[in-house]
Amino acid sequence: MAATEAGRCRHDKPIGVCLREHVRALVPPARPRSGADRDCPVCHTALSINIGNKGQRFVWDCAKHCDPSAVRGELQALGADAVCLGNYGSTDWVRRDAENKRKQVKSSGQVAPSTLEAERKYYVIEKLYGREFESVALLKVCLRAVIESDGNVSPDPEHLLPRDYRELAALARRAGVERCYSYKFARWWLKQLAEVRA
């Protein structure tokens, strides 16, 4: 069952219970007895996870204002269900955010650095969606690589993904690939690259 507007998650829990049991419980507290603040899985500062508004199921922000997409990837790597998290920080959210920033630029006539970065990411993501992928995992890992970049990257997976086995496996985990499969994915992709070059 998908998350509904009434706030129940796929496990049929109310939104507040879902936040507490399916998201916050997976992330260690920022410090003992700190209440709602959690340890940001990206930068390890205090992370606040709350019920969102304006169509966002949950929203999060940490003391260093890490990219919501990077935090989402880490939350999913810790076991958070994508449906429970909602769309905040997802690939669709990044696309909509880039589109909103594009509209702001047109109306104001000024270009902020974050807008240019979002625009570049949007362009690369559009190119990725135009390609055929051998596996869903490869697409997910490529999208995560774009989201974590500054947008100055190639839409070609051969140039986009790291060539280091451990870095690639870690990126796959942040993309939502289960830990045991992230290593298999890294081996498979590096083998594919070696065969192409041979």
Could you characterize the architecture of this molecule?
This protein is mainly alpha-helical and 198 residues long. The protein has 2 domains: 15-85, no CATH class; 91-197, no CATH class. Helices cover 53% and strands 7% of the residues. It contains 9 helices and 3 strands, in the order αβββαααααααα. It has helices at residues 15-23, 68-77, 82-85, 91-108, 113-129, 136-148, 157-160, 165-174, 179-197, and strands at residues 38-39, 46-51, 58-62. A 3-stranded antiparallel sheet has the order 1-2-3. It is globular and about 55 Å long. The termini are far apart. Mean pLDDT is 83; it is low at 1-6.
Overview in brief:
By secondary structure, the chain is mostly helical. The chain has helices spanning 15-23, 68-77, 82-85, 91-108, 113-129, 136-148, 157-160, 165-174, 179-197, and strands spanning 38-39, 46-51, 58-62. The chain has two domains: 15-85, no CATH class; 91-197, no CATH class.
Features:
single chain; 198 residues; mainly alpha; 2 domains; 3-stranded antiparallel β-sheet; 9 helices; 3 strands; globular; disordered N terminus
